[in-house]
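Aggregate trends can hide what the representation actually does to any particular protein. For completeness, the protein is quoted in full, as a sequence line and a line of structure tokens.
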Amino acid sequence: MTTFTADLPEGRVWRFGWMFGAIWLIYLIYPLNEILALGSMAARVTGIAAIIGFAVVFTTTFWRFRNGHRRGHPLPTSQAWIALAEMAVLTAAMCALIGTTGFGATVYIAVLAMMTLPVRHAWALVAAMAVVVEFTPRAVSSWVPDNFFAFQLLISAAAAWGITQVFQRNHELAVARQQLADLAIVAERERMSRDVHDILGHSLTVITVKSELAGRLIDLDPARAAVEIAELETLARQALADVRSTVGGMRQIDVGTELASARTALTAAGIAADLPADADLVPLRHRELFGWVLREAVTNVVRHSSARRCRVTLTSSSISIVDDGVGPAGDGCDTGGNGLRGIGERVTAAGGSLTIARVSTGGFKVEVSAE
């Protein structure tokens, strides 16, 4: 499979977001040193495996939380509980091997709980861990109590809660800004509609009156009727010019309109069209981009693919066009010539990613994802 992708640098940062969580795992070096000092080889292997497992679970869960939060798809609470339970079991294993030093891992559990769980559940878990780390060392004679660790655990949880609230507010602010932008687009379209209505309402009213007058004058005063008819032509041309100048600035591609055009084009070419019934789920900010992608991809299917079937899949953040034909010669971005290269530039400018790939059916897939 040959794939061309166009990503902004920010997209690459998101993919490597796990590093922001992994960097804090440096503090696991303290229990690791204790484990490496154990006399039993089996105990050392078990302890190292527990630390590695703990680090993997923490980093993976943090990455899923961070990317899901950015994309508006938060980590399910049930999956967060599973990850936290796994980390708790691994922490217990470390404590069984090295005593109270293993409790250092509970800070990671507290921080992750504050990020991924409802506030009440998170604080209940942190309080339970504070009780455990405070009283367990006093119940085990071979362990050395740490009088300040429970306090440190609570402070870490509070800091994580504060940071999470900042993230949440920033996300809500970004959503509100996007909603305002969408509302501005709607308001502008409504203004344009009112302008067109006013222009046509006035012009067509005058044209109607003059046409009625010309109709009455044809037999009574042909010369006067000819003048009225000439003025009708002038009025019609002026109305057309006014409408063109008004809507010229708002003329744009829309994915809903392009779906209807795509169905017509594919059917005329004898290609079975598997298309969504509508594009209502696509937000305003993506409708023009997806419309351009759909138009160009369907044009290539009709012209070059010799396909028998074409399927279009739409979500709120992606569009995919797949055919079962042979496609044009070449691979990657060159498969679509200047058209798809132009689409690649549009997608990059919009902050999305474009994938053009051969598929197992022999045809091509054109897929665009936008944030």
In short: Strands lie at 272-274, 309-314, 318-323, 353-358, 364-369. The longest strand covers residues 309-314. Residues 1-14, 330-336 have pLDDT under 50 and may be disordered.
